Amino acid sequence: MALRIEEIRESGLLELYVLGDLSGEDLSTVEAALSKYPELLEDISSIEQALKIYGKIHSVPAPNISFDNLINKPLSSSNSYNPASRPAKSRGSWLWPLMFIGALIGGGFIYNNLSQKLSDSQSDLVNCRTNSEQKDVQIELLQQISNPNNTIIKVDPTEKYPETNIYLHNDNAAQKAFLQIKSLPPIADNQSYQLWSLKDNVDPIPLDVFEGDAGNIFEVNFELNTGAYAITIEPKGGSTSPTLDNLIGVFPVS
Amino acid sequence: MEEEIIKKLKSRDQSGLQSLYKNYGDVLYGNILRVTNNDTSIAQEILQNTFLKIWKNIDKYESKKGGLFTWMNTIARNTALDKVRLVGYQQNKKTESIDASVYSLNKSYISASKLDVDKLLSTLEEKNKVVLDMIYLQGYSHRETAKILDLPLGTIKSRLRIGLGALRKEIDKEKHLFFGFIIILIIICSLIKWL
Asked: What phi and psi values does residue A253 have, to the nearest 5 degrees?
């Protein structure tokens, strides 16, 4: 939704943007407005300054942080050998052996560095391959969910978990179903999300159990004649019957 | 100064991170501490993670989308909220003591000049201040704030806007006064020199 500059200023969205409390459509609205009306950056800067000052009023002396420990610096100890700082006494006869030793140390250092770089590159290559394979899987899934026979159903989130934003792509003809995750409520390490099939006069049927890092789109079990699918938060590994207190949303299929 | 720090961070110069910490560490720590309900050990861990994330992700920062502080504060806030949610703080501690913490913190941690602070805070109407404090200092989202205060989302947005507007106005006024004072000082110095 495109708003005029005054509407944006009056909407309170700029303040929430600076506070980092916007997402989805509101965030896109502000970002679009910032590109359309660059003068809004002055408003952003002024709000930011007010918050900075207000924050300073409420600031608390921060503890000391050792950035050396915090940031892994692989080359931080490489300068311990410094030929320039050595005494220049008896240069003549010692010069060549010293240069030789220096060359050996330097060569060793360069070799070590190159080996490290080679090892890093190999690990990058493996990562790239893994990423590429994951992308292939995602592309294949995207092709499947763009099938025109699919019905796309947006989750109806429960009041307790309003941030839930998931789409179910249901293909009755091919008897396939996919979940497309936009946002899920956070869960603890010992919990999982679980999909259920709900039918009239039948106990909920447990389907897929998944974690938050299952990916954006993935295939789930299709259950014929399902009236609605539901997702709950269950103990890790899933349950045989749903924990209704932890119901995060429902997809009405029929 | 910010541009200089960003340049240093992007060229992986650790002194940039130290300057950043010196300038913003206290503010971010104060904000994190309030989200963690004054749990210093968790707040310190979050503060470290925040600066580590800043160091690792500085290339993703885009100045055209807002200032460095906004970006850092969002990282700090999200890191803190993730951690707090993980340890179940919001349910167990934060909701039960919300009134106490919202109203008491601004008194205990005031560190800027008392006179200016009092003047600045007096520009805020109490109802707007509560909303600002809950969202900015306590780390609640505006939706959570609306739910807790039982007010429509629009009212929350407008109270936040009006509250921050009052602060902006007062800060602007102080800035003008300061520049006015500097100009008068320059004129007086010039006159003394001329005489």
From this structure: -90, -45
